[in-house]
Specification:
globular, 5-stranded mixed beta sheet, alpha+beta, Trna Endonuclease, Chain: A, domain 1, 2 helices
Amino acid sequence: MLKNRGFSIIAHNVQLGHLEIDIIARKGECVYFIEVKYRSQSVSIEYVLSKYKKHKFLLAVKRYLWKNKMKLACIKLMLCILTGPGSVKWIPFDDLI
């Protein structure tokens, strides 16, 4: 799915202690940290990603950047919601904070 959109996958299911990043990908100069959620039906964003889950995701990204000594000019945080075959919704994390 991402490779068809010009992304190259850096890592997936990255474990950082009790934290996890689902997908880390690169497209052009930007590195994308992606949280993937599957729901059998369309639901509100608050249900998919609670404040606590947002906090854990942000903490995981910060930890990954620190651990890998990465200083990037372009970092994007995304939520990917899968609600069935071929149904994908991409939401920039900025819209969730």
